[in-house]
Write a structure and sequence with these properties.
Elements: H1 7-14, H2 18-22, H3 29-45, H4 57-67, H5 83-93, E1 96-97, H6 100-114, H7 121-134, E2 137-138, H8 142-160, H9 170-183, H10 195-201
Parallel strand pairs: 1-2
């Protein structure tokens, strides 16, 4: 999450509405503040934070004022032990945790719809997280997301670069070459096996 927020954006994204206040029953102190920040973070990002440092300071101070809890109390709120809060927030916002089936489905989606048109890994990651959010699925942890990205790129390479270079039209071969040059140190299968080319680009054979 970005850390620089204008006052207008903070009010627009971090203000508690009627349904949010209903969720605060019997919560006080650091629990009250941390719960509210977790609620708004999932609503905005489609995931929960890994560390309290991910909460923008401007948002912490604003929400602390709303719930009448000092902003400094946030350090007493443990994200690791907030499983019950996560469950309550998911149910309130209509989210659910990702399953292995979800990961497989979205990996296939990424390979088919994103990798052919978006070569940058950061953009692929952003697209994947946005898709999780649009489907109201809480994404898996960072390590699983990276595995999803690797699997999608390998699937794209396998499906769209299956044969020798001569079997592909020039635009397809060029796209495959560019993708592989930017995302891996291995020569794609559709590129000639010339040792001179491999040496120039630092590639090893697939």
């Amino acid at each position: 999450m970005r850390q620089e927020w204008s006052p207008e954006d903070v009010v627009a994204c971090w203000t508690l509405v009627d349904g949010d206040w209903d969720l605060l029953a019997n919560k006080s102190g650091p629990t009250r503040l941390g719960f509210c920040l977790m609620l708004k973070f999932l609503e905005s990002e489609g995931r929960f934070p890994e560390f309290t440092e991910e909460f923008p300071q401007a948002a912490v101070e604003y929400v602390a004022g709303l719930v009448k809890v000092p902003a400094g109390e946030l350090v007493k709120y443990g994200l690791a032990g907030a499983k019950r809060h996560r469950k309550q927030i998911r149910e309130a916002l209509g989210f659910r945790p990702a399953t292995l089936a979800d990961e497989e489905t979205l990996t296939a989606w990424l390979a088919a719809d994103v990798c052919p048109v978006e070569l940058l890994e950061d953009r692929q990651r952003e697209a994947l997280l946005l898709e999780y959010r649009s489907r109201k699925i809480e994404p898996p942890g960072p390590s699983r997301i990276e595995k999803n990205l690797v699997a999608a790129r390998r699937r794209w390479e396998k499906e769209f670069c299956p044969g020798p270079f001569s079997a592909w039209d020039p635009p397809a071969a060029a796209a495959c070459w560019l993708w592989s040059r930017m995302t891996t140190t291995r020569a794609p299968r559709c590129w000639p096996r010339s040792s001179a080319i491999r040496g120039r680009w630092g590639w090893t054979l697939c």
